[in-house]
Amino acid sequence: MHDPKRIAFIRDHLIHCLRAIQGGADLRGYYVWSLMDNFEWGLGYSQRFGLVHVDYQSFRRTPKDSFAWYRAVCRDGGFDGPELPELRSGFEEGAAMGG
């Protein structure tokens, strides 16, 4: 399942986390809102925030593109991108951004 907006959302948050660390914040981790799509009190089942799609009829779980992307970020200790070239070195210097 393709969810490029979720990837961009998480990427942007990780960029801000790294900038906070570089600015002296004692940030020790980052966690996504939800591993799987689930019931949200304010929105019911209408919004899907998880990294894993849940078919509410069969309960089949399917990892989304954001799951694979976030797994790679955790495995590789960061990510490269034109937005912020210093991200890789920032993660390698101990800014643990996984979960």
Describe, in plain words, how this protein is organized in 3D.
This protein is mainly α. The chain has one domain. The chain is 37% helix and 6% strand. The chain contains three helices and two strands. The protein has helices spanning 4-22, 65-76, 87-92; strands spanning 52-54, 61-63. The chain has a two-stranded antiparallel sheet. Helix 1 (4-22) runs parallel beside helix 2 (65-76). The longest helix has 19 residues, at 4-22.
Itemize the secondary structure elements and their pairings:
Elements: H1 4-22, E1 52-54, E2 61-63, H2 65-76, H3 87-92
Antiparallel strand pairs: 1-2
Mean pLDDT over the residues: 82
Classify the helix fraction into a percent range: 25-40%
Largest sheet data: 2 strands, antiparallel
Number of contiguous helices: 3
Using only CA atoms, what is the Rg? 15 Å
Give the SSE order as H and E letters. HEEHH
Strand content: 5-15%
- Secondary-structure-based class equals mainly alpha
The domain tally reads 1
**Stretches where pLDDT falls below 50 for ≥5 residues?**
88-99
DSSP E strands, number: 2
